[in-house]
UniProtKB/TrEMBL annotation:
<keyword id="KW-0503">Monooxygenase</keyword>
<dbReference type="InterPro" id="IPR036939">
    <property type="entry name" value="Cu2_ascorb_mOase_N_sf"/>
</dbReference>
<keyword id="KW-0325">Glycoprotein</keyword>
<dbReference type="InterPro" id="IPR014783">
    <property type="entry name" value="Cu2_ascorb_mOase_CS-2"/>
</dbReference>
<dbReference type="Pfam" id="PF03351">
    <property type="entry name" value="DOMON"/>
</dbReference>
<protein>
    <recommendedName>
        <fullName>DOMON domain-containing protein</fullName>
    </recommendedName>
</protein>
<keyword id="KW-0560">Oxidoreductase</keyword>
<dbReference type="GO" id="GO:0004500">
    <property type="term" value="F:dopamine beta-monooxygenase activity"/>
</dbReference>
<dbReference type="GO" id="GO:0042421">
    <property type="term" value="P:norepinephrine biosynthetic process"/>
</dbReference>
<keyword id="KW-1015">Disulfide bond</keyword>
<dbReference type="Pfam" id="PF01082">
    <property type="entry name" value="Cu2_monooxygen"/>
</dbReference>
<dbReference type="GO" id="GO:0005615">
    <property type="term" value="C:extracellular space"/>
</dbReference>
<feature type="domain" description="DOMON">
    <location>
        <begin position="38"/>
        <end position="154"/>
    </location>
</feature>
<comment type="similarity">
    <text>Belongs to the copper type II ascorbate-dependent monooxygenase family.</text>
</comment>
<dbReference type="GO" id="GO:0042420">
    <property type="term" value="P:dopamine catabolic process"/>
</dbReference>
<dbReference type="GO" id="GO:0030667">
    <property type="term" value="C:secretory granule membrane"/>
</dbReference>
<dbReference type="InterPro" id="IPR008977">
    <property type="entry name" value="PHM/PNGase_F_dom_sf"/>
</dbReference>
Amino acid sequence: MHHQLLNMPLFLLSVLCLYSSHASVPALRFSAFLDPTHQIYLRWDHNAEEAIMTFELQAHSTGWVSFGFTNNKEITGADFVIGGILPDGNVYFSDWHGVSEDTVLEDENQDYELLSLTQDATSTTMAFRRYFRTCDEDDLDITGDTLRLMAGYGTDDTINFFEGRIVHKSLYMMLLSTEDELHSPSIYHVYDLKVDDVSITSLKTKITLDSFSDRFNFEPRITPRNETLVHHILVYACGNASVLPTGVSDCYGADPDFALCSQVVVGWAVGGGSYMFPDETGISIGTPLDAQWVRLEIHYSNFNLIPDLIDNSGIRIYYTPELRPYDMGVLHTGLFTFPIHFIPPGVDSYMSYGICNTSQFEEMNGAPVPDMHMFGYLLHTHLAGKGVRGVLYRNGEQVTVLCEDNKYDFNLQETRNLKETVIFKPGDEFLVECQYQTLDRTDVIFGGPSTLNEMCLIFLFYYPRNNISSCLGYPDIQYVANELGQEASDEMEGMMAINLVDWDNETIKKAEKACKEAEQTVIIKTIDELVRNETSFIREISDTILAPCKDISRAIPAPWLKRQTEYKATPPTTAKALGAKSIFPLPPLLFLSWCFTWLLTSSV
Ligand SMILES: *[C@@H]1O[C@H](CO)[C@@H](O)[C@H](O)[C@H]1NC(C)=O
Ligand SMILES: *[C@@H]1O[C@H](CO)[C@@H](O)[C@H](O)[C@H]1NC(C)=O
Ligand SMILES: *[C@@H]1O[C@H](CO)[C@@H](O)[C@H](O)[C@H]1NC(C)=O
Ligand SMILES: *[C@@H]1O[C@H](CO)[C@@H](O)[C@H](O)[C@H]1NC(C)=O
Ligand SMILES: *[C@@H]1O[C@H](CO)[C@@H](O)[C@H](O)[C@H]1NC(C)=O
Ligand SMILES: CC(=O)N[C@H]1CO[C@H](CO)[C@@H](O)[C@@H]1O
């Protein structure tokens, strides 16, 4: 029987009803808890046309509450609001920034607009909005990158900022739809594809491969308490090979047959949640054209070398006989993962490139390749990765930056949808650019499977499917070695030569330039493991245009917010001596009413 796989939101958080919402703020579609103990809950929504983001923060405190953005969990340069309701009912709310790790200052330009502020016996709810870009040097841009959020609260209204509870969370905020907006089929089945009591030995990063099975799936099922160990999970479809191994084996191990299944169909990695495909599409299973077998690959990180770990993680799949219009496919793009990819140590920003040239797709597919409708993607690098971009070119011209995250967080890897489907035609080129930071490393990092090695990949989700599974590029390493003044007469010598380079700012720049201008070999694979290569080169990338700067305080004057106040963390001893209340002057009174809802009636 022909089925398609989807994912279904069966595990909706019931905690949402904990706080009752009020009518003031427009329906905000997205939500997340910002801390593991569920004391701080954020709802948000964005309006691309107006370039504005609306937030509603609920914190389990009747003291001050705070929310904002940081660069990398640092107070210095942080951009946030602090607000609350005084015991006498007066409201305070204003825009702040971090000047140093122990000083925060109220902004001269107030760029956040308060929409409502309410309080009950146990919690405070604060709704406000801000333009994506204010161009105030004390604010940070709200972008489609993985944002570093900061939230906090104090026990009372004395804003001893540094004595409050502060939490940090990485979040991608430009979400497009919630799972309840998607169509769920009336009939579906569930299948758990998982490992059974697999032992994770004490290798630093050990990789285990599991059973070939006849179904797929798409929701992480990480064994409780094993969350920090499971690094990423991939499900590969197997081609037409007649002999497939069964059981569990090491990845990249002795048995080459385990590598036969190379078409990624499902990816999940650290920090990701469940994912449901758009209404038009699902993964086809059960027809003669479909893979009969899949390979489940789980990568573990066991940095603490805990012995005798047992794991039962895997992925839960939801599948249905109510077919969607298109069967989907996954195209694996980026830099070929092997040691020709290298990143020098001690670099603040180093770029690597891998190109896919699709000019041979038609020939390799065995049938005309229909236009590929790209609808989603998953970015993947390891710990040194700081940014990933995927750029589409047609006839030598850049069509679009298909996807980008300039604040990539290794701990938050998830499948994301494109704003609208983007057509990929046979003959197009797709460039993947990865940015790395290696200030904490002393040795060259090479491409490879371990968390301490690096990768530079984008998995593209599209429909209707074709037979191509991967299209990965890598630079001519011999050329690169020669540019770095090393002798190398073939690829192997080129790779060895990289170890001999003396890394300083000059050789690093040379290496980056040489890798970009070197001819690339593009390796294309089909689901039947047919492999072909061709040459290509790296084109320039035109940056995406930033949202315009807008100033909310000019749009909606809020003169009462125009004050300047500073709070400086005081050494613990003097703080005690001073007494909390005297340190911080409370903001002026805005309204006088007890237990109220304050609304600024304005429409965006
Ligand atoms: C497997 O091979 C057969 C013949 O060799 C072919 O007809 C069929 O389409 C192949 N299946 C897939 C999934 O490629
Ligand atoms: C895959 O390849 C086979 C031939 O090997 C071809 O008949 C089939 O149409 C191709 N499938 C798609 C979706 O292009
Ligand atoms: C590169 O230059 C900066 C100063 O401009 C220096 O701090 C850094 O250590 C240099 N890196 C290497 C690898 O020499
Ligand atoms: C690329 O293809 C050519 C000819 O098909 C072959 O000789 C060469 O070894 C291939 N290169 C790689 C890196 O696979
Ligand atoms: C992609 O391949 C085609 C055909 O071989 C070639 O004309 C084109 O220049 C290639 N693109 C790049 C960027 O190398
Ligand atoms: C570190 C840790 O808590 N590991 C647990 C992972 O899950 C298994 C059960 O499958 C437990 O036995 C381990 O203790």
